[in-house]
Amino acid sequence: MERGARLLGKTGELKKTIVAGIVGFVAGAIIILVFGYNPLTAYTALFRGAFGSMYGFSESLANAVPLILTGLTFAIGFRGGMFNIGAEGQLYLGALAAVTVSFLRLPPAVSFVISLIFAALAGAVWSLPVAILKATRGVHEVISTIMLNWISRFLAFFLIAEVLVDPLRAEKTVSITEGARFALLVQGTSLSYGLVVSIIVAIIVYILIWRTVIGFNIRALGHNERAAAYAGIVKWKIILFVFISGGVTAGLAGAVHVMGRPPTYAIFSGLPAVNGLGFEGLAVAMIGRNHPIGIIFAALFFGGLLAGGREMQVFAQVPLEMVRVVEGIVVLFLAVPELMRLFAFFKRMGKSRVPAGDSE
Amino acid sequence: MNLSYVWRIFVGSLHAMVPITLAGTGETVGESSGLFNIGLEGIILLSAMTGALGAEAGGAIVGLLVGIGTGFAVGILFGLICTYFRGVQLVAGVGINLFAMGFVSFWLIHLGVPGHHAVAEQARIVDIKTPYGAFSPLLVVAIVLPIVAHHILFRTKLGLKIRAVGENPQAADVAGIKVNLTRLFSTAVGASLTGLAGAYISIDWLGSVTKEISAGRGFIALATVVFSGLNPLLVLLGGFIFGFFDNLAVWVATMPAVQGVVPWQFISMTPYVVTLLIVAGVIGRVRFPAAMGQPYERE
């Protein structure tokens, strides 16, 4: 019975996500139309580019790799009732930490492992001020993470231009040494074994949140803070754990991106390829309903939009950024807890009387 | 360093203060009613864009109105989702920000100016020239508005209503106040002022639109509101402190003594570092409406 109800709850979530998705695409189509493009051509190119070929699908998966990890950053926080939007900055530093290791000229396997560890540490360290300020001073994480994102942005600009710069090409950092790169999973595409890391981390997060005591405590705090306090859950420990583990996944996101993304395996000044991967992770987490499995699929969907967006830009001349417009609208509508009732509401406006029987 | 130097920094700080104060005052009204809108950043970005295009089409005043209108429209959407449809405010706010980031970049590329759209000179607000320097007319608005907002919030019946629905919506409902309508109104007013802030940035202060024109100012306005403990007069002060560091960063970066010694990136960080420190320093002492962030539902 309980399992049945839970399953029903999940199909409800799925239905809602699909409805929000449809609303997003319809609104996007209207905007495309208003700006004088053809939405049909645009969307056809978008989906063909994303899922229409092995190459496209591989690119979609490749784009999903860091998004799964930044999505997890947000999801861990969300389960604990915290709104961690610091993945963006932590990802920059994770990527740069991985690059730093390439200066050490370590043996290949060692360099690979140390790069991942450094990246995870960088993300964790960068999330510490957020956790400490929240636990000791009650500073809301939305404000502290955003300020740290901006600070890390300028820090990244500095590191790219002055410290990690490639002596031969001033516009980028040195490349990750060959031994520390992820091998390609599909030759001729951008898809690397980084995907495996993302999926393993997603599984670990699942186990952590749903199968361990600390995970139970996190969810308890997110569910009802007062009850959690009565149950003897120490809030500051949970806060620290949530932000550090979020920092680790965001840092790893930066690492898998820079260590697994051909052809340059480096970061360019102005952060063009990394920019937004953290913020997109937010949307991925929300669309994936803050569940690791959902996040994997949502990341694939987003990765697909980004990959297909290029095709859309070429064949329908619609700027790639349209993809983000759709994302934003989807998230906006996902905010509504009972999206289905929103439609019932509009139906109701036409009718005279509401039939009784609201489930709540 | 002579006095005119100091004066110039002061005037520059005042102009950098304007968008923070406008958006912060607006958000104070919204938060007093119980709605926490983290979409300020997105609203600033969107209205900087629409305001600039409006100004180029019909003049500076039209631009400001278009900016306000954009903020109002987004505010109504946000307000509806978060009141009558009991939406999650933080999620809706993130949706607004994502949408704005995508839409403004899309629009700039559509116009054929992916990087930087300079607003035509004749479409920009004309500064008031005085012997003490040129001042934007919106500077006056940004100083007067928090005083007016303070008066309304704490000295009028309307303000009492707004604060009541934020503090104890059940009691307000019993007293005959329409909770959701009051919240919708408050957040829409707040978003309109944020829209004005956006239009100010593009058609007055910086005179251009880029996809990063808001530069975290929406979030800094949020931080200022936290700093103020929902007192508009302190928003004015907080806005000035941020404006000072924002402006100082630009000014210090051009100083010969500093150039080459301190990298510009570290100077550009200071406003964000200062904001973080200030918020961390004051926070324990401020108190927010009891029902903030919660959708209201009759039992």
Concise description?
The complex is a heterodimer of chains A (360) and B (299). Chain A is mainly alpha-helical and 360 residues long. Chain A has 14 helices and no strands.
The string of secondary-structure elements of chain A, in order, is: HHHHHHHHHHHHHH
Instruction: Describe the sheet with the most strands of chain B.
Output: 2 strands, antiparallel
Number of strands of chain A: 0
Fraction in beta strands of chain B: under 5%
Q: What is the helix fraction of residues of chain B, given as a range?
A: over 70%
Mean pLDDT of chain B: 89
Largest interface by Cβ-Cβ < 8 Å: A-B, 52 and 48 residues
* Class per helix and strand makeup of chain A: mainly alpha
Distance between the termini of chain B: 65 Å
Oligomer: heterodimer
Question: What share of the residues of chain A lie within helices?
Answer: over 70%
Q: Could you tell me the strand content of chain A as a percent range?
A: under 5%
Please give a structural write-up.
The complex is a heterodimer of chains A (360) and B (299). Chain A has 360 residues and is mainly alpha-helical. Chain A has a domain at 67-298. Helices cover 73% and strands 0% of the residues of chain A. In chain A, α8 (213-223) packs across α10 (235-260). Residues 352-360 of chain A have low confidence and may be disordered. Chain B has 299 residues and is mainly alpha-helical. Chain B has a domain at 18-218. Helix content of chain B is 70%, strand content 4%. In chain B, the strands form 2 sheets. A two-stranded antiparallel sheet of chain B has the order 1-4. In chain B, strands 2-3 form a two-stranded antiparallel sheet. In chain B, α1 (3-32) runs parallel beside α5 (137-155), α1 crosses α9 (217-228) and α3 (60-82) runs antiparallel to α8 (179-205).
